């Protein structure tokens, strides 16, 4: 079994592997992460960082360029500009966007829910669409979405609404009370929305209190799914609530295939 050691080295990380060089997938991830904090990197800089040959690093950069994750420049690579958003539209605005895609994603997600499941449903426009496609009859749900709880209760499902502070623009319940409640639960499955997805930043959302609830709930799920239309990819908002590897992704079109290196991605035709 190979062993990796991570050693702080002048503000950077020196990666060593007793049985040889850092694996290519790990180098790819670390190069992308490095370009989040630096606009450019040189081949020699990456050679020194990973103890790899220049030819190996050039192959890495060619691959990442082909995947659309970096921009090749003379002697190295530059970061690809990623949309950065700090605000969140209200639910009425989001509900009008990508409706065809949301229904296709939601229908597939609903197929994973059985009567025996104990399910967490995150507040959000795509997860709200999921409720319209439910086929199970006696599943128990926990949610921080007021509209979600109202919909489920009206259809005689056993539903638990988390307590706490209500966000007026999204109808999401957040805060310490919700976090304390989530600590007690163990979900078989959880379904989450996101405002942005990127390899370097993971799944992100604009508001810290919502991010805290998402993070806590996701950590208590045996299987977690993020429902995301294609517009969410290569976008970053201020707060990360999970790495990409922390949940499977259900979407309608995956442009950048490199995401499959980090998690399960399921695509469905809209």
Task: List its salient traits.
alpha/beta; Arc Repressor Mutant, subunit A; disordered N terminus; 19 strands; elongated; Rossmann fold; 270 residues
State the helix count. 9
Biggest sheet, open or closed, and with what strands and sense?
7 strands, parallel
User: What is the H/E order?
Assistant: EEHEHHEEEHHEHEHEEEHEEEHEEEEE
The backbone outline, from C-alpha atoms, is elongated
SSE layout and pairing:
Elements (H helix, E strand, L loop, with lengths): L3 E6 L2 E6 L6 H14 L2 E3 H8 L3 H13 L3 E4 L2 E4 L3 E2 L6 H4 L4 H12 L7 E4 L3 H7 L8 E4 L2 H9 L3 E4 L3 E2 L6 E2 L1 H7 L4 E6 L3 E3 L3 E4 L2 H12 L1 E7 L7 E2 L2 E4 L5 E4 L13 E3 L3
Parallel strand pairs: 6-16, 7-8, 7-12, 8-9, 12-15, 15-18, 18-19
Antiparallel strand pairs: 1-2, 3-5, 4-5, 10-11, 13-14, 14-17
Helix pairs in contact: 2-3, 5-6
General description of the model:
The protein is an alpha/beta fold. The protein folds into two domains: 4-81, Winged helix-like DNA-binding domain superfamily/Winged helix DNA-binding domain (Arc Repressor Mutant, subunit A, Orthogonal Bundle); 91-267, Rossmann fold. It is 32% helix and 27% strand. A seven-stranded parallel sheet has the order 9-8-7-12-15-18-19, sandwiched between helices. Strands 3-5-4 form a three-stranded antiparallel sheet. A hairpin with a 6-residue loop joins strand 10 and strand 11. Helix 2 packs across helix 3 and helix 5 (99-110) crosses helix 6. The longest helix is centred in the N-terminal third of the chain and has 14 residues, at 24-37. The radius of gyration is 20 Å and the shape is elongated. The relative contact order is 0.13. Residues 1-20 have low confidence and may be disordered.
